[in-house]
Amino acid sequence: MKIITAVNDAWPPYVTRDNARPGFSVEVVTAALHTQGYDIEFLLFPWARGLHEVRNARIDLITTTWYTDARSEYLVYSDPYFATNIDIMMRKDTIFDYSGPKSLTGKRIASVRDYGYDQWFLDAEYFQRVETTSLMSSLQMLAADRIDIAIGNRFVMLQELKPLNLDADDFHFSPTPMIKKHIHVTAAKANPNASKYIQAFNRGLEIIKQNGTFDDLKKKYGLILPDDTTAE
């Protein structure tokens, strides 16, 4: 089989540091491309470095990418393969239900540097955006009452509480996500094989959805809510 290189930062349960249980996205990309005659060599890099390497065509794919207009200028996007909404986490003693951007007025909100947030969130001046270097840092600030809200994908945040020795029962989520996002596989337009690889993934994705592999992987990684809203 031909080998494709792929990169991501650790983003459990989508991408993990555990070779025996590498993550939902890693297994989806591997299974989809395997149907098209490709093997995958995965690398774990910090997000900014991985994006740089792919953008310069030194690595072929990023496994989990949110869409932004800026990135679309230099990346080719696959079909969306999973919803990873940006959720609002708060301490259990905080009562808040997100009802639109203005409902954030006056809040102290931690956001991670260089993530793909919507432009309205980056430009807003009616709340205090506290920039952090990682989601773990955001959660530590939330636990210490230095911010009111941490934002990120709920499954990732729940996973990241564990190494911090924080109890998930001490936190809860707004019923309404702040931003609805989907993840894609991407390749750089500078890579001459970009379209070929992305089209191969799209074809393989349809195959693993039809043969049950995709649903099996959702169950394996606990990515099914009662109403399955994460898979929209």
CATH class of the largest domain: Alpha Beta
Q: Report how far apart the termini are.
A: 32 Å
| Low-confidence region ranges | 226-232
Largest sheet: 6 strands, mixed
So, CATH architecture of the largest domain? 3-Layer(aba) Sandwich
**How much helix, percentage-wise, in residues?**
25-40%
Q: How would you portray this structure in words?
A:
There is one protein chain. The chain has two domains: 2-83 and 182-231, Periplasmic binding protein-like II (D-Maltodextrin-Binding Protein, domain 2), CATH 3.40.190.10; 87-173, D-Maltodextrin-Binding Protein, domain 2 (3-Layer(aba) Sandwich). The protein has helices at residues 24-34, 47-55, 69-72, 119-123, 135-143, 154-161, 194-210, 213-220, and strands at residues 2-8, 38-44, 61-66, 75-77, 82-83, 87-91, 108-112, 128-132, 149-152, 171-173, 182-188. The relative contact order is 0.21. By secondary structure, it is of the alpha/beta class. Strands 1, 2, 3, 4, 5 and 11 form a six-stranded mixed β-sheet that branches. Helix content is 31%, strand content 23%.
Keywords:
disordered C terminus, 8 helices, about 230 residues, five-stranded mixed beta sheet, 11 strands, alpha/beta, 2 domains, D-Maltodextrin-Binding Protein, domain 2, globular, single chain, six-stranded mixed beta sheet
What's a quick, concise take on this entry?
The protein is 31% helix and 23% strand. It has 232 residues and is an alpha/beta fold.
